[in-house]
Design brief:
Radius of gyration of chain B: 23 Å
Distance between the termini of chain B: 40 Å
CATH class of the largest domain in chain B: Alpha Beta
Largest interface: A-B, 25 and 39 residues
CATH superfamily of the largest domain in chain A: Class I glutamine amidotransferase (GATase) domain
Shape of chain B: elongated
Largest sheet of chain B: 6 strands, mixed
Strand content of chain A: 25-35%
Number of strands of chain B: 10
Number of helices of chain B: 9
Radius of gyration of chain A: 40 Å
Strand order of the largest sheet of chain B: 5-4-3-6-7-10
CATH topology of the largest domain in chain B: Rossmann fold
Structural class of chain A: alpha+beta
Order of helices and strands of chain B: HEHEEHEEHHEHEHEEHEH
CATH superfamily of the largest domain in chain B: von Willebrand factor, type A domain
Oligomer: heterodimer
Number of strands of chain A: 35
Chain lengths: 677, 292
């Protein structure tokens, strides 16, 4: 067994010489006194010295040992723990501090056990050993650029570490980097990788291969059970995503139940509470065990434009982090509508109608700008425009395509991904086409009665896309059809597809007076407005990822960066950094609602939600992970020799020496033997 | 005109006026005096009757007894003779020690010796004086005149502490000066080997001398004065010894007491008178002991 010192300040051992120095330096010069005869005194001193000298030497020895013990205790000696002798080892601790580590398996939180294991591993290191700490929440964070001999710093960092409500985006990357750090060691040095995690399936799936390959990896599974029963709010969506003031909207709250280690049947009774400003609604539901469900709330958007914060919450369970979810919805009094056409006249009465819809802010442009919009009305797009359309759809915008009724080249690439064109038809025989039916059950026709729509359906149309359109309809919903003539199939006149977060509308009807008389119908404007209004999806804007992203805010003109504050739910201001014309929070975003304020004016509200993947608390089982680890074996597998701290014993020895010295100093003197000359 | 010695103070003489120097012994003098002596003398105190032998003084024949008994009987009387007092005053360097007392041991002893000399001369007895250290420094033969007393006092007054003490050797050398038995008053601190002292006193005792040992000590010697680490320098040898008197005091006091006790026992065993005096105390009580 070797003795190692954590605090190698060897000069402290010079303290052992203090009693000797005191004896030498602090010796007082004796006062000289004339005396009649020292004959008797000499004899007494000789006898006294015979008795006192061993005692003095003993006292000096005791005091020297006492000082040496105290000084030695400051060196923090440990017995053992350095099996490699002088060659220091390296330990890289990969500590999972994602949200799932906050779950409690029975009485103990996973993170607490993980910290205990990590601290034990750090304490078992010898002074010559080096170590590094990697935390996984959000993205891998390395405490040092390379392993360092800084045990106190590591222990302090571990004491500060706690489970963060964030997922991990780089377990494999963290392991790879840690591996590189170990590989950079000299060949003679021993390196070890210690992965402490609950081995949550969702997080660690990507790292299984890396785990299996590592021979110097020691895995410690702190999950006591393979799964923890958990209920979570997984999603919130509002339809429409960007409501108008006072508009009726539907909020859909997604709930999920995950089975524990022991699966059970039946349903879990829950109540979902919705907070929307001053409004609080609660709705009971039954969640199937191991299943999902949705709860819908019918709401009315606020009468004033601005950010509308919605919070859905269920009863807290053993893993409460995912029982709350936030949604911030912009309530706008005007929606942006871009009309893209090579010439205004090509969009004829449709443009006129769009410009007159009250809730639209219509802007005609010959080409697509980069600015986002709620609606894009695109006249005669071509195949080259398809990526731009897809991009708009992916951004959750509603794109209404008015095809080139002579020959369209965009639809086929857009709908099927293949190049091709759809030929148009032109009625030149003096007749015209009529619309035959509408999907009256669709919400977009809710305002209209069947009788009222007759006038619209009877309007004559001279130009449309032909029969090649029919097979392209696919999953789209046909909202209007042409009346079939001569037994031919009825072609769709208005189609709607849900494309991801966005909505695609195909307006297979002319928009100029030359080819249609629909423009004269009083129903044209409301029908177009309703179609656009109901085509808006439940898309939500991107929100920051908890534990990974930093909250940012683009400064609007006229607002000084110094005036802007970022407040959390508790109203506390968070530190900000100015970057060009934007502000960035210096702290990683954590779940909650944040408000960007300029003085008392609310600029923007941002919600950061709990990462839904962290709600899955299933861990690798030994069967899944093979022989990679078991919980108990892993702890033993750290293979770091136990270190026995010696400094408490040294302090105890110092105290014992002190008591012994007191006893010797204060012991009653033996009866002095009188002497005669 | 020589100045009168001041070592004998008027207050001492006044205080000791009622004292008479006497020791419980038979004096062996050759002058008629106040002290009982061995043998028959011409005093008025009857001693005994004894048979006449030729050669006896016929004046001593008690003719009344002859008339009654027809035998020649001599009526003898006690002999009264003078007393010789031999003063030995230790004048070694150690006697110059003065720590707590107002005067040194030598001064104290000299005062005491002066008073004794005065008492002796006042009683028409003879007094001799020897000042010694390791040898006899001054010797004044016995005398009983005022001039002799004046000489004694002068010697004592101008006496100074000298070399190392060697009391046994001094007694050895002074033996020749003591021609007939008398009283030896030895004033010293007796910082010497007691067995050697006893050996040196034996001849005097065998000759029938009465020995009075007067030990003069300073209170500082009895209690080991001083505080903290001290280096004690021997006043006679210059020898140095370093010790902490606080640690040594108790042991020293016990040792000193034991030494005085030892001297006392030795004196008592040999029929000597042992007197102990401290320089911070009056020496008058010593005369009470001497007069007993």
């Amino acid at each position: 067994m070797n003795i190692s010192f954590d605090n190698p300040v060897w000069w402290l051992m010079a303290a052992a010489l203090v009693p000797l120095l005191v004896h030498l330096v602090a010796r007082t010069r004796p006062k000289e006194r004339r005396f009649s005869s020292v004959l008797l005194l000499k004899e007494l001193v000789r006898l006294q010295a015979r008795r006192a000298r061993p005692k003095d030497w003993l006292l000096l020895l005791l005091r020297t040992l006492l000082c040496a013990c105290v000084a030695g205790a400051f060196l923090l000696p440990h017995l053992g723990g350095d099996a490699e002798g002088g060659q220091g080892r390296t330990l890289v601790i990969v500590l999972d501090d994602t949200a799932s580590m906050g779950a409690a398996d029975g009485q103990q939180v996973r993170m607490n056990r993980a910290l205990e294991v990590a601290q034990a591993a750090v304490r078992s290191l010898a002074p010559a050993d080096r170590a590094n700490l990697v935390t996984l929440s959000g993205y891998p964070r390395f405490l040092f650029d390379r392993p360092e001999s800084a045990r106190p710093l590591l222990l302090r960092e571990l004491a500060r570490t706690q489970s963060r409500p964030a997922a991990s985006a780089g377990v494999a990357e963290a392991l790879a980097t840690a591996r590189r750090q170990l590989d950079a060691l000299p060949e003679v040095a021993e390196g070890k990788l210690l992965l402490i995690s609950d081995f949550q399936t969702a997080t660690m799936q990507e790292a299984v291969a890396a785990l299996a390959e590592s021979d110097d990896l020691c895995c410690v599974n702190v999950a006591q059970t393979s799964a923890v029963e958990n209920t979570s709010v997984t999603s919130m969506s509002l339809t429409p995503a960007k409501p108008l003031p006072g508009q009726k909207v539907t909020l859909t709250v997604g709930l999920q139940h995950r089975q524990g280690a022991v699966a059970r049947e039946g349903r879990v009774p829950l109540s979902v509470t919705l907070s929307a400003g001053n409004l609080r609604l609660s709705q009971p539901c039954e969640l199937p065990c191991g299943g999902q469900t949705q709860v819908r709330f019918e709401l009315t958007a606020p009468q004033e434009a601005g950010d509308w914060c919605l919070t859905a919450q269920t009863e807290a369970d053993v893993y409460p982090g995912d029982n709350t979810r936030y949604l911030v919805v912009p309530v706008a009094d005007k929606l942006d509508c871009l009309v893209i056409a090579s010439d205004r006249t090509h969009v004829g009465f449709m443009l006129r109608a769009l410009e007159n819809i009250p809730f639209l802010r219509t802007l005609y442009l010959p080409s697509l700008p980069e600015t986002p919009a709620d609606f894009v009305v695109w006249h005669a797009p071509v195949a080259a425009d398809v990526p731009a359309i897809q991009e708009r759809l992916a951004a959750g915008e509603t794109v209404l395509i008015v095809p080139d009724l002579a020959q369209d080249t965009a639809l086929k690439p857009l709908l099927t991904g293949k190049e091709g064109c759809v030929a148009g038809e032109l009625r030149t025989d003096g007749g015209y086409w009529l619309l035959s039916e509408c999907a009256v059950d669709d919400a977009s026709f809710e305002l209209f009665e069947q009788a009222a729509l007759e006038s619209w359906l009877q309007a004559g149309i001279y130009r449309r896309l032909g029969a090649e359109l029919e097979p392209l309809a696919g999953s789209g919903k046909v909202l209007m059809r042409y009346a079939g003539d001569d037994g031919a199939a009825a072609l769709p006149a208005l189609l709607r597809w849900q494309k991801g977060a966005g909505t695609l509308l195909l307006w297979n009807m002319p928009v100029t007076a030359r080819d249609s008389r629909q423009g004269f119908s009083p129903l044209y404007l409301p029908l177009l407005a309703e179609q656009l209004n109901h085509a808006r999806g439940a898309a939500v804007q991107d929100e920051p990822v908890a534990g990974q992203d930093f909250l940012q805010f683009l400064l609007p003109t006229g607002v000084s960066a110094g005036d802007v504050r970022l407040l959390n739910e508790a109203g506390e201001a968070l530190p900000l950094a100015v970057r060009h014309n934007s502000l960035r929070c210096e702290q990683v975003a954590m779940p909650g609602v944040y408000r960007w304020m300029a003085g008392e004016q609310l600029l923007r509200t941002v919600a950061v939600n709990f990462p839904s993947e962290e709600s899955d608390l299933r861990s690798f089982t030994p069967e899944v992970a093979g022989e990679m680890f078991t919980a108990d074996a892993a702890v033993e597998g750290v293979a770091l020799a136990a270190r026995v701290p010696l400094w408490p014993w040294l302090l105890a020895a110092a105290f014992a020496l002190f008591v012994l010295e007191l006893l010797i100093c204060r012991s009653p003197r033996a009866a002095q033997r009188t002497t005669g000359l | 005109m020589a100045q009168a010695p001041t070592i004998l103070r008027p207050e001492d003489m006044s205080r000791l006026a009622n004292y008479r120097f006497a020791v419980r012994m038979m004096a062996e003098g050759w002058l008629s005096g106040h002290h009982r002596a061995k043998g028959r003398g011409s005093s008025s105190d009857f001693l005994e009757y004894r048979a006449y032998y030729p050669g006896d003084d016929p004046r001593l024949v008690d003719w009344r007894v002859f008339a009654r008994t027809d035998k020649l009987q001599l009526k003898t009387f006690e002999n009264e003779t003078h007393l010789e007092c031999h003063l030995f005053v230790d004048s070694s360097a150690s006697m110059g020690y003065k720590e707590i007392g107002p005067i040194s041991k030598l001064e104290y002893g000299s005062h005491f010796a002066a008073c004794v000399a005065w008492l002796v001369v006042r009683g028409n007895d003879r007094v001799s004086l020897q000042l010694f250290d390791d040898q006899v420094r001054q010797y004044l033969p016995p005398g009983s005149t005022a001039a002799h007393l004046n000489q004694c006092l002068n010697l004592l007054e101008h006496n100074t502490a000298g070399n190392q003490t060697d009391l046994p050797q001094a007694l050895e050398r002074a033996r020749g000066f003591v021609q007939r038995p008398g009283t030896l008053v030895i004033v010293s601190d007796f910082m010497c080997d007691l067995s050697a002292l006893q050996a040196a006193l034996n001849p005097y005792l065998h000759r029938g001398c009465k020995v009075v040992l007067v030990q003069v000590l300073d209170a500082g010697e009895l209690s080991l004065s001083g505080q903290g680490l001290s280096r004690y320098v021997d006043m006679e040898t210059g020898e140095r010894i370093t010790c902490n008197p606080d640690d040594m005091r108790r042991v020293y006091q016990e040792a000193m007491q034991a030494r005085r006790q030892q001297l006392h026992v030795m004196a008592a065993a040999r029929g000597m008178l042992y007197l102990s005096a401290r320089t911070d105390e009056s020496f008058y009580p010593l005369f009470d002991a001497l007069a007993r």
